């Protein structure tokens, strides 16, 4: 009788001890949560720059774009008076591009880049000044072979150069006067000689 009670007590004790473990095993286990990937950063905003921002007609500048899709076709419109043809480029693996441009007329240029796939848009402006006028060059007379007469260019005109023709003219006038006087003297002498005869 006593043995039976002891066995029953042990059975009850084991049941009490095992009950929480059985209950825990029977309870539904929570599903492991899925790993949440970090939020992606927003894409870089599109940008378009020109270097330099001021130039003259005929000089080449560089248009640089960023923030477009990799391998995307980008059309750059050129707005000036009058409107000029657009430029088509392809962005690289980083969504960037660089293209040279040579303005042909003066004015304020507005460049607008539009991604043909993403629709992203960026713009910039360029100021183009007139081409500098070359300084006038001297044309030397033919008798100098088209070249300056000496290393320093033309010499200033001096009084001797100007007076030479005047001196020649004065000499001719003086010679003419002497001839006239001699002629008059010869005529008078001829008259007096005729009168004495």
TrEMBL record:
<keyword id="KW-0812">Transmembrane</keyword>
<feature type="signal peptide">
    <location>
        <begin position="1"/>
        <end position="23"/>
    </location>
</feature>
<feature type="transmembrane region" description="Helical">
    <location>
        <begin position="168"/>
        <end position="186"/>
    </location>
</feature>
<feature type="region of interest" description="Disordered">
    <location>
        <begin position="28"/>
        <end position="53"/>
    </location>
</feature>
<keyword id="KW-0472">Membrane</keyword>
<keyword id="KW-1133">Transmembrane helix</keyword>
<dbReference type="InterPro" id="IPR027273">
    <property type="entry name" value="Neocarzinostatin-like"/>
</dbReference>
<keyword id="KW-0732">Signal</keyword>
<dbReference type="InterPro" id="IPR013783">
    <property type="entry name" value="Ig-like_fold"/>
</dbReference>
<protein>
    <recommendedName>
        <fullName>LPXTG-motif cell wall anchor domain-containing protein</fullName>
    </recommendedName>
</protein>
<dbReference type="GO" id="GO:0005975">
    <property type="term" value="P:carbohydrate metabolic process"/>
</dbReference>
<feature type="compositionally biased region" description="Low complexity">
    <location>
        <begin position="28"/>
        <end position="39"/>
    </location>
</feature>
<feature type="region of interest" description="Disordered">
    <location>
        <begin position="131"/>
        <end position="152"/>
    </location>
</feature>
């Amino acid at each position: 009788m006593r043995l039976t009670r002891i066995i029953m007590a042990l059975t009850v004790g084991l049941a009490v001890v095992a009950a929480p473990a059985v209950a825990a095993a029977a309870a539904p286990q929570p599903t492991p949560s899925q790993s949440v990937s970090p939020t992606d950063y927003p894409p870089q905003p599109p940008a378009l720059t020109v270097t330099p921002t001021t130039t003259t007609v005929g000089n080449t500048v560089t248009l640089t774009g960023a923030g477009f899709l990799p391998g995307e076709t980008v059309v750059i419109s050129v707005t000036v008076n009058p409107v000029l043809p657009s430029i088509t480029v392809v962005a690289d693996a980083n969504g960037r591009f660089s293209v040279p441009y040579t303005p042909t007329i003066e004015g304020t240029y507005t460049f607008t880049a539009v991604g043909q796939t993403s629709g992203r848009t960026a713009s910039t402006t360029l100021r183009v000044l007139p081409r500098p006028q070359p300084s006038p060059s001297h044309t030397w007379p033919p008798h100098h072979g088209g070249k300056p007469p000496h290393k320093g260019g033309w010499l200033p005109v001096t009084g001797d150069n100007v007076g030479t023709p005047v001196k020649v003219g004065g000499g001719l006038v003086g010679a003419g006067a002497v001839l006239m006087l001699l002629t008059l003297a010869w005529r008078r002498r001829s008259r007096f000689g005729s009168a004495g005869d």
